[in-house]
Amino acid sequence: MTERPQRFALAVAGLVATVCLAAGCGGDGGDQLPPAQNENRGGPRASKDCNDLVQLALSSLQPEQFGTLDTSGPLTLLDGWKADCQSTETARIAEQMVGKETKRLVDHDLLLRIIGDQFSDQDAAHVRNVIQMQKSAEFAANRAEGDLERIVQVFQYVVRNVQLLEEDDPLAGLGAFEALVLGEGSARDRAWVFVDLLRQLRVDAVVLRPAGAAEGSPFLVGVLLDGKCYLFDTRLGWPVPSPEDDGSQPFVTRPATLAELRAEGELLDRFDLPDAPYPLADADLDDVDVLVAVTSSLLAPRLAGVHAILTGTTVVDSFDSPEGDLGYPNLLTRLTDNAPWKPEKLAIWEYPERKSVQTLDDMAADRRSAVLARRDQFTTKLRSGGSLLVGRLQQLRGEFDTTDLEPGAVANLSAVRDSNQQTSDAHREAARDALFWSGLCTLATGDRLAAENTLRGYVDRHPAGRYVPTARLHLAEGYVSRGGAERAAAELAAIAEDTPGRDGLALLAARWQAKTGSESGETPSEPTPEPEETKETESADDPA
Protein backbone atom coordinates (compact mmCIF):
# COMPACT_ATOMS: atom_id res chain seq x y z
CA MET A 1 0.00 0.00 0.00
CA THR A 2 3.08 2.17 0.38
CA GLU A 3 6.72 1.71 -0.51
CA ARG A 4 7.12 -0.38 2.61
CA PRO A 5 6.28 -3.81 1.10
CA GLN A 6 8.92 -3.65 -1.63
CA ARG A 7 11.78 -2.33 0.46
CA PHE A 8 10.77 -4.39 3.46
CA ALA A 9 10.67 -7.54 1.34
CA LEU A 10 14.22 -6.95 0.12
CA ALA A 11 15.52 -6.67 3.67
CA VAL A 12 13.56 -9.70 4.79
CA ALA A 13 14.81 -11.67 1.80
CA GLY A 14 18.36 -11.12 2.97
CA LEU A 15 17.51 -12.22 6.46
CA VAL A 16 15.57 -15.21 5.12
CA ALA A 17 18.63 -16.25 3.14
CA THR A 18 20.83 -15.95 6.22
CA VAL A 19 18.45 -17.92 8.38
CA CYS A 20 17.78 -20.55 5.73
CA LEU A 21 21.48 -21.14 5.23
CA ALA A 22 21.55 -22.03 8.90
CA ALA A 23 18.10 -23.53 9.45
CA GLY A 24 17.59 -25.30 6.15
CA CYS A 25 14.14 -23.84 5.62
CA GLY A 26 14.37 -24.34 1.89
CA GLY A 27 14.24 -28.15 1.91
CA ASP A 28 16.45 -31.12 2.70
CA GLY A 29 19.68 -29.22 3.13
CA GLY A 30 21.19 -30.24 -0.19
CA ASP A 31 21.66 -26.62 -1.29
CA GLN A 32 23.28 -25.47 1.95
CA LEU A 33 26.85 -24.34 2.41
CA PRO A 34 29.50 -27.08 2.58
CA PRO A 35 30.05 -28.43 6.09
CA ALA A 36 33.32 -26.54 6.51
CA GLN A 37 31.52 -23.18 6.03
CA ASN A 38 28.20 -24.08 7.67
CA GLU A 39 28.02 -23.27 11.36
CA ASN A 40 25.36 -25.93 11.97
CA ARG A 41 26.77 -28.94 13.74
CA GLY A 42 27.02 -31.84 11.32
CA GLY A 43 26.52 -29.90 8.09
CA PRO A 44 23.64 -30.65 5.73
CA ARG A 45 22.12 -33.34 7.91
CA ALA A 46 21.93 -30.89 10.81
CA SER A 47 20.38 -28.33 8.46
CA LYS A 48 17.51 -30.71 7.80
CA ASP A 49 17.19 -31.34 11.52
CA CYS A 50 17.03 -27.59 12.10
CA ASN A 51 14.36 -27.23 9.46
CA ASP A 52 12.30 -29.99 11.04
CA LEU A 53 12.76 -28.42 14.46
CA VAL A 54 11.50 -24.98 13.55
CA GLN A 55 8.68 -26.30 11.37
CA LEU A 56 7.51 -28.48 14.24
CA ALA A 57 7.61 -25.50 16.56
CA LEU A 58 5.69 -23.28 14.14
CA SER A 59 3.10 -25.96 13.44
CA SER A 60 2.41 -26.06 17.16
CA LEU A 61 1.97 -22.30 17.25
CA GLN A 62 -1.05 -22.26 14.95
CA PRO A 63 -4.11 -20.60 16.51
CA GLU A 64 -6.11 -23.87 16.53
CA GLN A 65 -3.42 -25.55 18.66
CA PHE A 66 -3.94 -23.16 21.55
CA GLY A 67 -6.71 -23.09 24.08
CA THR A 68 -7.94 -19.52 24.35
CA LEU A 69 -5.58 -17.55 26.62
CA ASP A 70 -3.17 -20.50 26.78
CA THR A 71 0.34 -19.22 26.06
CA SER A 72 2.20 -22.47 26.68
CA GLY A 73 3.98 -23.76 23.60
CA PRO A 74 7.04 -25.36 22.05
CA LEU A 75 9.46 -22.92 23.66
CA THR A 76 12.16 -25.54 24.19
CA LEU A 77 12.12 -26.26 20.45
CA LEU A 78 12.52 -22.59 19.61
CA ASP A 79 15.30 -22.06 22.14
CA GLY A 80 17.13 -25.11 20.81
CA TRP A 81 16.68 -23.93 17.23
CA LYS A 82 17.99 -20.47 18.11
CA ALA A 83 21.01 -21.85 19.97
CA ASP A 84 22.03 -24.49 17.46
CA CYS A 85 20.76 -23.28 14.11
CA GLN A 86 21.07 -19.53 13.83
CA SER A 87 24.35 -18.35 12.37
CA THR A 88 26.70 -15.75 13.78
CA GLU A 89 25.67 -13.40 10.96
CA THR A 90 22.01 -13.72 11.95
CA ALA A 91 22.93 -12.92 15.54
CA ARG A 92 24.96 -9.90 14.41
CA ILE A 93 22.06 -8.54 12.36
CA ALA A 94 19.72 -9.13 15.27
CA GLU A 95 21.95 -7.17 17.64
CA GLN A 96 21.68 -4.13 15.36
CA MET A 97 17.92 -4.16 15.79
CA VAL A 98 18.08 -2.78 19.33
CA GLY A 99 19.84 0.57 19.31
CA LYS A 100 19.48 4.12 20.49
CA GLU A 101 16.04 4.67 18.99
CA THR A 102 14.59 1.61 20.70
CA LYS A 103 16.19 2.59 24.00
CA ARG A 104 14.83 6.11 23.65
CA LEU A 105 11.27 4.88 23.19
CA VAL A 106 11.01 2.08 25.76
CA ASP A 107 11.35 1.94 29.53
CA HIS A 108 13.78 -0.30 31.40
CA ASP A 109 11.42 -3.22 32.02
CA LEU A 110 10.22 -3.28 28.43
CA LEU A 111 13.80 -3.15 27.18
CA LEU A 112 14.75 -6.16 29.30
CA ARG A 113 11.93 -8.17 27.75
CA ILE A 114 12.97 -7.03 24.26
CA ILE A 115 16.60 -8.09 24.61
CA GLY A 116 15.91 -11.33 26.49
CA ASP A 117 17.79 -14.25 24.97
CA GLN A 118 15.23 -17.02 25.53
CA PHE A 119 11.79 -17.33 23.99
CA SER A 120 8.93 -16.69 26.38
CA ASP A 121 5.28 -17.64 26.72
CA GLN A 122 4.56 -14.14 25.47
CA ASP A 123 6.56 -14.86 22.29
CA ALA A 124 4.63 -18.08 21.66
CA ALA A 125 1.36 -16.21 22.00
CA HIS A 126 2.71 -13.47 19.73
CA VAL A 127 3.45 -15.89 16.89
CA ARG A 128 0.02 -17.48 17.27
CA ASN A 129 -1.57 -14.03 17.26
CA VAL A 130 0.08 -12.71 14.12
CA ILE A 131 -0.73 -15.86 12.16
CA GLN A 132 -4.42 -15.40 12.96
CA MET A 133 -4.29 -11.63 12.41
CA GLN A 134 -2.74 -12.05 8.97
CA LYS A 135 -5.48 -14.41 7.81
CA SER A 136 -8.22 -12.29 9.37
CA ALA A 137 -6.87 -9.08 7.85
CA GLU A 138 -6.74 -10.63 4.40
CA PHE A 139 -10.38 -11.71 4.70
CA ALA A 140 -11.52 -8.41 6.22
CA ALA A 141 -10.15 -6.37 3.31
CA ASN A 142 -10.71 -8.77 0.44
CA ARG A 143 -13.60 -6.89 -1.17
CA ALA A 144 -12.09 -3.41 -1.08
CA GLU A 145 -11.09 -1.63 -4.27
CA GLY A 146 -8.67 0.94 -2.88
CA ASP A 147 -6.33 1.47 0.05
CA LEU A 148 -8.63 3.73 2.06
CA GLU A 149 -11.58 1.44 1.47
CA ARG A 150 -9.51 -1.48 2.78
CA ILE A 151 -8.81 0.43 5.97
CA VAL A 152 -12.48 1.30 6.47
CA GLN A 153 -13.50 -2.31 5.84
CA VAL A 154 -10.99 -3.58 8.41
CA PHE A 155 -12.38 -1.08 10.91
CA GLN A 156 -15.94 -2.25 10.29
CA TYR A 157 -14.75 -5.85 10.60
CA VAL A 158 -13.36 -5.04 14.06
CA VAL A 159 -16.54 -3.27 15.18
CA ARG A 160 -18.74 -6.14 13.95
CA ASN A 161 -16.54 -8.88 15.43
CA VAL A 162 -15.48 -7.29 18.74
CA GLN A 163 -18.56 -6.19 20.64
CA LEU A 164 -17.87 -3.35 23.05
CA LEU A 165 -17.30 -4.00 26.74
CA GLU A 166 -16.82 -1.49 29.52
CA GLU A 167 -13.20 -1.03 30.55
CA ASP A 168 -13.82 -2.66 33.94
CA ASP A 169 -15.53 -5.77 32.53
CA PRO A 170 -13.78 -8.99 33.67
CA LEU A 171 -13.28 -10.03 30.04
CA ALA A 172 -11.78 -6.72 28.91
CA GLY A 173 -8.04 -6.37 28.45
CA LEU A 174 -7.20 -10.03 27.90
CA GLY A 175 -5.29 -9.33 24.67
CA ALA A 176 -5.90 -8.53 21.01
CA PHE A 177 -6.16 -12.19 20.00
CA GLU A 178 -8.52 -12.97 22.86
CA ALA A 179 -10.73 -9.96 22.11
CA LEU A 180 -11.02 -11.00 18.47
CA VAL A 181 -11.73 -14.66 19.19
CA LEU A 182 -14.08 -14.10 22.13
CA GLY A 183 -15.78 -11.36 20.17
CA GLU A 184 -15.73 -8.85 23.02
CA GLY A 185 -13.39 -6.13 24.19
CA SER A 186 -13.06 -2.59 25.44
CA ALA A 187 -12.48 0.44 23.20
CA ARG A 188 -8.75 0.01 23.82
CA ASP A 189 -8.97 -3.68 22.90
CA ARG A 190 -10.71 -2.77 19.66
CA ALA A 191 -7.97 -0.24 18.91
CA TRP A 192 -5.31 -2.86 19.57
CA VAL A 193 -7.00 -5.38 17.25
CA PHE A 194 -7.44 -2.70 14.57
CA VAL A 195 -3.76 -1.72 14.67
CA ASP A 196 -2.62 -5.36 14.63
CA LEU A 197 -4.83 -6.24 11.65
CA LEU A 198 -3.59 -3.21 9.71
CA ARG A 199 0.00 -4.18 10.47
CA GLN A 200 -0.55 -7.41 8.55
CA LEU A 201 -1.65 -5.30 5.58
CA ARG A 202 1.53 -3.21 5.92
CA VAL A 203 -0.42 -0.17 7.09
CA ASP A 204 0.75 1.77 10.14
CA ALA A 205 -1.61 3.14 12.77
CA VAL A 206 -1.21 4.89 16.12
CA VAL A 207 -3.30 5.88 19.10
CA LEU A 208 -3.80 9.63 19.46
CA ARG A 209 -4.50 11.27 22.83
CA PRO A 210 -4.54 14.94 23.78
CA ALA A 211 -1.03 15.87 24.85
CA GLY A 212 -0.39 14.95 28.48
CA ALA A 213 -3.63 12.97 28.89
CA ALA A 214 -3.46 9.92 31.14
CA GLU A 215 -3.80 6.30 30.04
CA GLY A 216 -7.51 5.49 29.81
CA SER A 217 -8.43 8.99 28.59
CA PRO A 218 -10.51 9.39 25.41
CA PHE A 219 -8.52 8.73 22.25
CA LEU A 220 -8.76 8.20 18.52
CA VAL A 221 -6.91 5.80 16.25
CA GLY A 222 -4.93 7.48 13.48
CA VAL A 223 -4.17 5.46 10.35
CA LEU A 224 -1.33 6.65 8.12
CA LEU A 225 -1.84 6.51 4.39
CA ASP A 226 -0.20 8.59 1.66
CA GLY A 227 1.00 11.24 4.08
CA LYS A 228 -2.40 11.64 5.76
CA CYS A 229 -3.68 10.49 9.13
CA TYR A 230 -7.27 9.17 9.00
CA LEU A 231 -9.25 9.12 12.26
CA PHE A 232 -11.40 6.41 13.86
CA ASP A 233 -13.24 6.12 17.18
CA THR A 234 -13.30 2.54 18.47
CA ARG A 235 -15.67 3.34 21.36
CA LEU A 236 -18.41 4.65 19.09
CA GLY A 237 -17.50 2.25 16.29
CA TRP A 238 -17.36 5.16 13.84
CA PRO A 239 -14.80 6.68 11.50
CA VAL A 240 -14.71 10.41 12.19
CA PRO A 241 -16.83 11.79 9.31
CA SER A 242 -14.95 13.92 6.79
CA PRO A 243 -16.09 17.50 6.11
CA GLU A 244 -17.68 16.26 2.86
CA ASP A 245 -19.84 13.68 4.65
CA ASP A 246 -23.44 14.94 4.42
CA GLY A 247 -25.14 11.94 6.02
CA SER A 248 -26.68 10.79 2.75
CA GLN A 249 -24.99 7.40 2.94
CA PRO A 250 -25.95 4.86 5.64
CA PHE A 251 -22.35 4.71 6.87
CA VAL A 252 -19.27 6.90 6.87
CA THR A 253 -17.09 5.80 3.96
CA ARG A 254 -14.54 8.59 3.98
CA PRO A 255 -12.92 9.31 7.36
CA ALA A 256 -11.65 12.74 8.30
CA THR A 257 -7.93 13.37 8.54
CA LEU A 258 -6.15 14.95 11.46
CA ALA A 259 -5.35 17.95 9.26
CA GLU A 260 -9.03 18.39 8.40
CA LEU A 261 -9.97 18.09 12.05
CA ARG A 262 -7.56 20.86 12.97
CA ALA A 263 -8.70 23.06 10.08
CA GLU A 264 -12.46 22.65 10.49
CA GLY A 265 -12.74 23.04 14.24
CA GLU A 266 -16.14 21.34 14.61
CA LEU A 267 -16.02 17.84 13.12
CA LEU A 268 -16.23 16.08 16.48
CA ASP A 269 -19.32 18.08 17.39
CA ARG A 270 -21.23 15.64 15.16
CA PHE A 271 -20.72 13.02 17.85
CA ASP A 272 -22.61 15.01 20.50
CA LEU A 273 -25.82 13.46 21.81
CA PRO A 274 -28.46 15.40 23.79
CA ASP A 275 -27.62 13.58 27.00
CA ALA A 276 -24.02 12.60 26.19
CA PRO A 277 -21.66 15.26 24.83
CA TYR A 278 -18.65 13.81 23.06
CA PRO A 279 -15.62 13.80 25.40
CA LEU A 280 -13.21 15.29 22.84
CA ALA A 281 -13.27 18.58 20.96
CA ASP A 282 -11.37 19.25 17.77
CA ALA A 283 -9.07 21.64 19.64
CA ASP A 284 -8.04 18.83 22.01
CA LEU A 285 -6.12 17.28 19.11
CA ASP A 286 -4.18 20.39 18.14
CA ASP A 287 -1.40 18.90 20.26
CA VAL A 288 -1.33 15.12 20.62
CA ASP A 289 0.67 12.31 22.10
CA VAL A 290 1.31 9.71 19.39
CA LEU A 291 1.23 6.26 20.96
CA VAL A 292 2.82 3.29 19.22
CA ALA A 293 0.97 0.00 19.75
CA VAL A 294 3.77 -2.55 20.05
CA THR A 295 4.78 -5.30 22.44
CA SER A 296 8.20 -6.50 23.49
CA SER A 297 7.80 -9.61 21.34
CA LEU A 298 7.21 -7.52 18.21
CA LEU A 299 10.47 -5.64 18.83
CA ALA A 300 12.54 -8.59 20.11
CA PRO A 301 15.53 -9.60 17.91
CA ARG A 302 15.00 -13.24 18.88
CA LEU A 303 11.81 -13.09 16.80
CA ALA A 304 13.65 -11.84 13.70
CA GLY A 305 14.55 -15.35 12.58
CA VAL A 306 11.00 -16.62 13.14
CA HIS A 307 9.72 -13.61 11.24
CA ALA A 308 12.04 -14.36 8.34
CA ILE A 309 10.77 -17.94 8.07
CA LEU A 310 7.14 -16.89 8.34
CA THR A 311 7.68 -14.22 5.69
CA GLY A 312 9.32 -16.82 3.49
CA THR A 313 6.10 -18.86 3.41
CA THR A 314 3.42 -16.18 3.69
CA VAL A 315 3.39 -12.45 4.36
CA VAL A 316 3.16 -12.38 8.15
CA ASP A 317 4.58 -9.39 9.99
CA SER A 318 5.82 -10.69 13.35
CA PHE A 319 8.83 -8.41 13.87
CA ASP A 320 9.53 -4.69 13.59
CA SER A 321 12.23 -2.27 14.70
CA PRO A 322 12.59 1.48 15.30
CA GLU A 323 16.23 1.41 14.16
CA GLY A 324 17.42 3.20 11.05
CA ASP A 325 20.11 1.03 9.48
CA LEU A 326 18.23 -2.09 8.39
CA GLY A 327 17.79 -1.24 4.71
CA TYR A 328 14.02 -0.70 4.78
CA PRO A 329 11.69 1.96 6.23
CA ASN A 330 11.91 1.26 9.95
CA LEU A 331 9.08 1.79 12.39
CA LEU A 332 10.24 5.23 13.51
CA THR A 333 10.70 6.48 9.96
CA ARG A 334 7.31 5.20 8.86
CA LEU A 335 5.57 6.90 11.78
CA THR A 336 7.27 10.28 11.32
CA ASP A 337 7.93 10.81 7.61
CA ASN A 338 5.17 13.02 6.18
CA ALA A 339 3.25 12.70 9.46
CA PRO A 340 1.54 15.72 11.08
CA TRP A 341 3.67 15.51 14.24
CA LYS A 342 7.30 15.69 15.27
CA PRO A 343 9.33 12.56 16.13
CA GLU A 344 9.57 13.52 19.78
CA LYS A 345 5.80 13.16 20.11
CA LEU A 346 6.08 9.38 19.69
CA ALA A 347 5.82 7.20 22.78
CA ILE A 348 5.02 3.57 23.46
CA TRP A 349 1.36 2.84 24.20
CA GLU A 350 1.67 0.99 27.48
CA TYR A 351 -1.62 -0.90 27.23
CA PRO A 352 -0.66 -3.75 24.83
CA GLU A 353 2.54 -4.68 26.66
CA ARG A 354 0.96 -4.46 30.11
CA LYS A 355 -1.89 -6.73 29.05
CA SER A 356 0.39 -9.11 27.14
CA VAL A 357 2.50 -9.97 30.18
CA GLN A 358 -0.38 -10.53 32.58
CA THR A 359 -1.26 -14.07 33.62
CA LEU A 360 -4.28 -15.70 35.18
CA ASP A 361 -2.42 -15.64 38.48
CA ASP A 362 -2.30 -11.84 38.30
CA MET A 363 -6.08 -11.56 38.13
CA ALA A 364 -8.54 -11.15 40.95
CA ALA A 365 -10.40 -14.34 41.82
CA ASP A 366 -13.74 -13.23 40.35
CA ARG A 367 -12.13 -12.14 37.11
CA ARG A 368 -10.10 -15.33 36.84
CA SER A 369 -13.28 -17.35 37.30
CA ALA A 370 -15.02 -15.46 34.46
CA VAL A 371 -12.04 -15.94 32.15
CA LEU A 372 -11.77 -19.66 32.86
CA ALA A 373 -15.49 -20.17 32.31
CA ARG A 374 -15.25 -18.42 28.94
CA ARG A 375 -12.19 -20.45 27.97
CA ASP A 376 -13.93 -23.70 28.85
CA GLN A 377 -16.79 -22.73 26.60
CA PHE A 378 -14.41 -22.39 23.65
CA THR A 379 -12.11 -25.34 24.26
CA THR A 380 -14.46 -28.07 25.51
CA LYS A 381 -14.65 -30.86 22.95
CA LEU A 382 -18.12 -32.07 22.02
CA ARG A 383 -18.96 -35.70 21.27
CA SER A 384 -19.84 -34.63 17.74
CA GLY A 385 -16.26 -33.46 17.25
CA GLY A 386 -17.32 -29.84 16.86
CA SER A 387 -15.12 -27.11 18.25
CA LEU A 388 -16.30 -23.57 18.95
CA LEU A 389 -12.70 -22.32 18.93
CA VAL A 390 -11.95 -23.79 15.51
CA GLY A 391 -15.28 -22.69 14.07
CA ARG A 392 -14.83 -19.15 15.35
CA LEU A 393 -11.25 -18.91 14.02
CA GLN A 394 -12.44 -20.11 10.62
CA GLN A 395 -15.34 -17.67 10.61
CA LEU A 396 -12.92 -14.82 11.34
CA ARG A 397 -10.74 -15.94 8.43
CA GLY A 398 -13.58 -16.50 5.96
CA GLU A 399 -12.99 -20.26 5.78
CA PHE A 400 -16.64 -21.24 5.55
CA ASP A 401 -16.72 -24.30 3.32
CA THR A 402 -15.70 -27.85 4.13
CA THR A 403 -12.71 -29.16 2.17
CA ASP A 404 -11.29 -32.61 1.61
CA LEU A 405 -8.94 -32.00 4.53
CA GLU A 406 -11.18 -30.53 7.21
CA PRO A 407 -14.64 -29.17 7.97
CA GLY A 408 -15.11 -25.44 7.53
CA ALA A 409 -16.67 -22.88 9.83
CA VAL A 410 -20.25 -23.70 8.84
CA ALA A 411 -19.82 -27.41 9.64
CA ASN A 412 -17.93 -26.80 12.89
CA LEU A 413 -20.43 -24.26 14.18
CA SER A 414 -23.35 -26.48 13.15
CA ALA A 415 -21.87 -29.34 15.17
CA VAL A 416 -21.60 -27.08 18.21
CA ARG A 417 -25.22 -26.00 17.77
CA ASP A 418 -26.43 -29.61 18.05
CA SER A 419 -28.75 -29.48 21.06
CA ASN A 420 -28.05 -33.14 21.89
CA GLN A 421 -24.52 -32.14 22.81
CA GLN A 422 -25.52 -29.41 25.27
CA THR A 423 -24.52 -31.36 28.36
CA SER A 424 -23.21 -28.51 30.51
CA ASP A 425 -23.49 -24.78 30.99
CA ALA A 426 -20.35 -24.36 28.85
CA HIS A 427 -21.91 -26.42 26.05
CA ARG A 428 -25.17 -24.50 26.14
CA GLU A 429 -23.38 -21.15 26.06
CA ALA A 430 -21.19 -22.41 23.21
CA ALA A 431 -24.30 -23.45 21.26
CA ARG A 432 -25.77 -19.97 21.62
CA ASP A 433 -22.60 -18.33 20.38
CA ALA A 434 -22.35 -20.82 17.52
CA LEU A 435 -25.86 -19.87 16.42
CA PHE A 436 -24.89 -16.20 16.25
CA TRP A 437 -21.63 -16.85 14.39
CA SER A 438 -23.44 -19.17 11.98
CA GLY A 439 -25.50 -16.14 11.04
CA LEU A 440 -22.33 -14.17 10.39
CA CYS A 441 -21.04 -16.97 8.15
CA THR A 442 -24.22 -16.86 6.08
CA LEU A 443 -24.06 -13.07 5.95
CA ALA A 444 -20.47 -13.12 4.68
CA THR A 445 -21.34 -15.57 1.92
CA GLY A 446 -23.95 -13.18 0.55
CA ASP A 447 -27.28 -14.69 1.62
CA ARG A 448 -28.47 -11.76 3.67
CA LEU A 449 -32.09 -12.88 4.11
CA ALA A 450 -31.05 -16.32 5.37
CA ALA A 451 -28.53 -14.64 7.67
CA GLU A 452 -31.20 -12.30 9.00
CA ASN A 453 -33.42 -15.29 9.70
CA THR A 454 -30.67 -16.92 11.77
CA LEU A 455 -29.82 -13.69 13.58
CA ARG A 456 -33.50 -13.00 14.29
CA GLY A 457 -33.78 -16.50 15.67
CA TYR A 458 -30.81 -15.82 17.95
CA VAL A 459 -32.32 -12.56 19.23
CA ASP A 460 -35.78 -14.02 19.77
CA ARG A 461 -34.57 -17.26 21.35
CA HIS A 462 -31.90 -15.68 23.53
CA PRO A 463 -33.04 -12.10 24.32
CA ALA A 464 -30.35 -11.82 26.98
CA GLY A 465 -27.71 -13.43 24.79
CA ARG A 466 -24.20 -12.10 24.84
CA TYR A 467 -24.20 -10.89 21.23
CA VAL A 468 -27.74 -9.55 20.93
CA PRO A 469 -26.57 -5.92 20.41
CA THR A 470 -24.36 -6.89 17.45
CA ALA A 471 -27.04 -9.22 16.07
CA ARG A 472 -29.53 -6.34 16.14
CA LEU A 473 -26.96 -4.10 14.45
CA HIS A 474 -26.60 -6.60 11.60
CA LEU A 475 -30.37 -6.85 11.29
CA ALA A 476 -30.66 -3.06 11.20
CA GLU A 477 -28.00 -2.84 8.50
CA GLY A 478 -29.99 -5.27 6.40
CA TYR A 479 -33.13 -3.20 6.72
CA VAL A 480 -31.41 0.09 5.87
CA SER A 481 -29.70 -1.49 2.86
CA ARG A 482 -33.16 -2.19 1.45
CA GLY A 483 -34.55 1.26 2.18
CA GLY A 484 -36.00 0.51 5.59
CA ALA A 485 -34.20 3.22 7.57
CA GLU A 486 -37.11 3.71 9.98
CA ARG A 487 -37.29 0.02 10.79
CA ALA A 488 -33.52 -0.12 11.11
CA ALA A 489 -33.55 2.70 13.65
CA ALA A 490 -36.30 0.91 15.58
CA GLU A 491 -34.15 -2.23 15.69
CA LEU A 492 -31.32 -0.27 17.28
CA ALA A 493 -33.74 1.41 19.68
CA ALA A 494 -34.63 -2.05 21.02
CA ILE A 495 -31.08 -2.44 22.38
CA ALA A 496 -30.92 -1.88 26.14
CA GLU A 497 -30.02 1.63 27.27
CA ASP A 498 -27.14 0.41 29.45
CA THR A 499 -25.48 -1.50 26.60
CA PRO A 500 -21.82 -0.52 26.12
CA GLY A 501 -21.49 1.28 22.81
CA ARG A 502 -25.03 2.65 23.02
CA ASP A 503 -23.80 6.12 22.01
CA GLY A 504 -22.48 4.88 18.69
CA LEU A 505 -25.70 3.00 17.98
CA ALA A 506 -27.81 6.06 18.87
CA LEU A 507 -25.79 8.18 16.45
CA LEU A 508 -26.31 5.58 13.75
CA ALA A 509 -30.08 5.52 14.36
CA ALA A 510 -30.20 9.32 14.20
CA ARG A 511 -28.26 9.29 10.91
CA TRP A 512 -30.70 6.84 9.39
CA GLN A 513 -33.78 8.65 10.66
CA ALA A 514 -32.49 11.95 9.27
CA LYS A 515 -32.37 10.53 5.74
CA THR A 516 -35.74 8.74 5.93
CA GLY A 517 -37.80 11.76 4.91
CA SER A 518 -35.76 12.38 1.78
CA GLU A 519 -36.03 8.86 0.38
CA SER A 520 -39.12 6.90 -0.58
CA GLY A 521 -37.29 3.58 -0.12
CA GLU A 522 -38.63 0.14 -0.74
CA THR A 523 -40.32 -1.89 1.93
CA PRO A 524 -37.64 -4.12 3.46
CA SER A 525 -38.04 -7.76 2.58
CA GLU A 526 -38.91 -10.11 5.38
CA PRO A 527 -36.60 -13.01 6.18
CA THR A 528 -37.93 -16.34 4.97
CA PRO A 529 -38.78 -18.91 7.63
CA GLU A 530 -35.93 -21.20 8.57
CA PRO A 531 -36.48 -24.78 7.40
CA GLU A 532 -37.58 -27.11 10.15
CA GLU A 533 -34.58 -29.38 9.81
CA THR A 534 -32.14 -26.52 10.48
CA LYS A 535 -34.00 -24.84 13.31
CA GLU A 536 -32.24 -24.52 16.62
CA THR A 537 -34.02 -26.60 19.27
CA GLU A 538 -33.48 -25.80 22.90
CA SER A 539 -32.83 -28.21 25.69
CA ALA A 540 -35.54 -28.28 28.30
CA ASP A 541 -33.02 -27.17 30.92
CA ASP A 542 -31.63 -24.32 28.82
CA PRO A 543 -32.14 -21.21 30.99
CA ALA A 544 -32.21 -18.95 27.95
Layout of helices and strands:
Layout: H1 4-23, H2 44-59, H3 75-85, H4 88-95, H5 100-105, H6 108-115, H7 121-140, H8 147-161, E1 163-164, H9 176-182, E2 184-185, H10 187-200, E3 205-210, E4 220-225, E5 228-233, E6 238-239, H11 258-264, E7 288-292, H12 296-299, H13 304-313, H14 331-336, E8 346-348, H15 350-356, H16 365-379, H17 388-397, H18 409-417, H19 425-444, H20 448-461, H21 468-481, H22 485-493, H23 502-516
Parallel strand pairs: 1-2, 7-8
Antiparallel strand pairs: 3-4, 3-7, 4-5, 5-6
Helix pairs in contact: 1-2, 1-13, 2-3, 7-10, 8-10, 9-10, 16-19, 17-18, 17-19, 18-19, 19-20, 20-21, 21-22, 22-23
Describe this structure in words.
This protein is mainly alpha-helical. It is built from 23 helices and eight strands. The protein has helices at residues 4-23, 44-59, 75-85, 88-95, 100-105, 108-115, 121-140, 147-161, 176-182, 187-200, 258-264, 296-299, 304-313, 331-336, 350-356, 365-379, 388-397, 409-417, 425-444, 448-461, 468-481, 485-493, 502-516; strands at residues 163-164, 184-185, 205-210, 220-225, 228-233, 238-239, 288-292, 346-348. The strands form two sheets. It has a six-stranded mixed beta sheet with strand order 6-5-4-3-7-8, covered by helices on one side. A two-stranded parallel sheet has the order 1-2. Helix 9 links the parallel strand 1 (163-164) and strand 2. Helix 21 (468-481) runs antiparallel to helix 22. The longest helix has 20 residues, at 4-23. The radius of gyration is 24 Å and the shape is globular. The two termini are 47 Å apart. The model is unreliable at 2-45, 518-525 and 528-544 (pLDDT under 50).
